[in-house]
Amino acid sequence: MSSRLARPRAALFVVLTLLLAALSVPSFGARSASAASCNTGTNLALNKPASSSSIEGAGTPASAAVDGNLGTRWSSQFSDPQWLQVDLGSTQSICEVVLNWETASGKAYQIQTSNDGSTWTSIYSTTSGPGGNETLNVSGSGRYIRMYGTARNTGYGYSLWEFSVYGGSGGGTPPPPTGGSLGSNVIVFSPSMTQSSIQSTLNSISNQQVPSEFGTGRYELLFEPGTYGSAASPLIFTVGFYEAVAGLGRNPGDVVINGTVDSYNQCSGSTCNATTNFWRSLTNLTVNVMGMSGCQNGDDFWAVSQAAPMRRVHINGNVSLMDYCVGGPGYASGGFIADSQFTGGTVTNGSQQQYITRNSALDGWSNGVWNQVFCGDPGAPAQSFASNSGLSGGPAPYTTLGTCPVTREAPYLYQDSGGNYNVFVPSLATNSNGPSWTGGQTPGTSLSLNTFFVVQPSATVAQINAALNAGDNLLFTPGVYNIPSTITVTHPDTQIVGLGFATLVPSSGNTALSVADVSGVQVSGLIFDAGGTTSPSLLQVGTAGSATRHNSDPVALDDVFFRVGGATAGSVTTPLVDNSNDSLLDDVWIWRADHGAGAGTWSGDQSPTGLVVNGNNVTAYGLAVEHFQQNEVDWNGQSGKVIFFQNENPYEVPSQAAWMSSASQKGYPALYIPNSVSSFQGYGLGSYSYFNQGVDIHNAMAFQVPQTSGVQLHDLLTVFLNGSGGIDSVVNGTGKAVSSAFGGPSDVVTYP
Predict the structure, then answer these.
(1) pTM
(2) CA torsion 689→691→697→703, rounded to 10°?
(3) How is 192-261 classified by DSSP, letter by letter?
(4) Which residues are catalytic, by number?
(5) Residue 516, class by beta-carbon neighbours within 10 Å (0-12 exposed, 13-18 middle, 19+ buried)?
(6) pLDDT tens digit string along 561-571?
(7) pLDDT digits (tens, 9 = 90+) for 185-209
(8) Residues 6+ apart with CB under 8 A from 254
């Protein structure tokens, strides 16, 4: 992958006024909410049974924190973690917790609830607890509640004079109405509108968003069922940053665009490429390619890199995954296509360095560069990855799997025959091949939009959690959301859907979203940005150490993206922690920014590890984790599968001494699997170096895994992009080094 160049932020255009106002913005029937307030008159924990992880002495038992006496206290051992737990006697709604600390207070802790005393859900999290008397506004429910401490403000233990809990029946924030307006940044086009007005609106949004890599504009562009454009007057438009383009039909054939939907190179000086074409999407429609002229005649151009999925589309005609017209052939790297069909033309890979295509029917594929992965794709090229793929005279670097082991397609918004809005949730599929919709309707379940709390950026976390506690789903409208406390999902099969790349930013050192150890939750279409105060995670799924299986109804993350820096300077310990057994990661990019806010220095945008997987039987498709400062991925679960993995080492390492995983091992692996793991399969894995500080930095190995027959890697490689130093081996000392002397790719077909 070529080095990504930061582009200057262009001035935003004045957003559409009368024209946008004339477009339809849907609203829906809503459930009314009853008024209620937090009942702080009754301490639910008072004189209830209490227990703890450990006590310092008989004079400081757990019960002393719930006896109503400020002269007695509970205290713990001088270690981490420690917890204090209270049995409330029955399931209670909880809206406020008061911690009256002794001097030995908690710095990093969570307030957690449970219905059974074993599976816990975080309803509050901080890494900067001040001590003293802390009043916490929370939203959750459970029979059990605990303070779970992970770091202390002193060298002593945790010590609480009193632990008070408020809420109870009827307390807390009431659940807000469901349904409602999708807001002004969801633009709905109808076939009854004039094409000139549609074209003008699309052009205005594109002109604003194409240069706005780190802007705050977010747009969902929806096409009602029907046909748009014609051979005589094609509809042609360009998709920029934070534009999600989707059809509102039940199937892709219900919305037809005669024309092209494009993404082109960006230019900085004389350099033009698509390596920063992120955060845009095309979903659930048909494009009959027509209407372009000159160099662009005959192709739909989708020149994108990460976080720019093409899902559930039918393109009839040629598609180019690179832009060879604007500034000449330019690099792109890291695209994702799923559940799609291509007819009547060829998909031109061109200079697209890495790509994954899953469950899609192909009518031709041109070539590969370093790492092209196909999974369950009728018409895909045959398996051909070899020890000299990507080198002169070598075969194409194709990794081809006939079927995908387990998949669940992303939910999508559609209109039924009565014009009502629903979210369709596709069913789980195993050993799948081809699109889910070409042989008939996609199997799955329709959910009325009236089962969703339609979240606006003005909504509070208390309202969001009240909706979740009431069993509602969430639909985030386009926007940037300030999240000062944790959004907590406790009900199975909850749908968390983002429109227009809705972006969640924790503002208090908290985890933005936490999913309990339940089945069937899907999170899709969201960006998580690290905030200015270090969070332990941005998204946490499941409970560490849980043995609960979810194989018949797994948690799924679809088109979920994480940023540490870039749009806003921030820090986080691990953006994504996945503890859920059998979970699915489908198009997940976790990025410590190499340009933008906070980027460019080793001390900026601190984050050691991008992804920790503790769950067993986790399957990932299209996983990209880049630029983190230690092991980029820690995969601790058994029987994991990764089908396509992309990584770049951090750019700005200041010295070799600053980047050592041990006294004798230089650098950190992109994927680390500890010796405790005995089963794992990886297919189509790449890692690349660009150390740009002019210092001779080396990474001993890109992949570090147990040397056992149950852990197998297939079709893996390293590449030296530019800069100094390099990667000394591909996996565990095997594979030729890449550096300025040999740029690679250095290919390993199978390990061990």
Answers:
(1) 0.83
(2) -20
(3) TS-HHHHHHHHHHHHHHHTT-TT-S--EEEEE-SEEE--SSS-EEEE--TTEEEEE-SSSGGGEEEEEEE
(4) 648
(5) buried
(6) 999 999 999 99
(7) 999 999 999 999 999 999 999 999 9
(8) 225, 247, 248
